[in-house]
Amino acid sequence: MYEECSGQMINKEKSSVMFSRNTKEEVKSAVMNKMGITAEVMNEKYLGLPVYMGRSRSKTFSYIKDRIWKKIQGWKERLLSKAGKEVLVKAVAQAMLTYAMSCFDLTQTLCDDISTMIGRF
Length: 121
Known about the structure:
Blueprint: H1 2-6, E1 16-17, H2 25-35, E2 39-40, E3 45-46, E4 49-50, H3 57-60, H4 62-74, H5 82-103, H6 108-120
Parallel strand pairs: 1-2
Antiparallel strand pairs: 3-4
Helix pairs in contact: 4-5, 4-6
Protein name: RNA-directed DNA polymerase (Reverse transcriptase)
């Protein structure tokens, strides 16, 4: 119906579907066959954000903390002035959080941990 109305085609190879844990395997396979989709979403990301959030939000968003840590470790802090460090942090580390925070409520612990990492830099 979407393809007929919009004139666009859905790429079934790039499409995936997500089911509740309570969904039976027969129902899953029937829906996937009917839609022509072969992939089921588990722990994937879409536009850099998790598609599924489990019970532990800190585990779900720990990848943000890891990415910021890797970025900070790659910088040559001895070559930067105090103002240069501040500009770099604002331009890179804080920008990485902006999109995630616009879509989700991040945990206070995660925000505190990231602030501590940035402060130590």
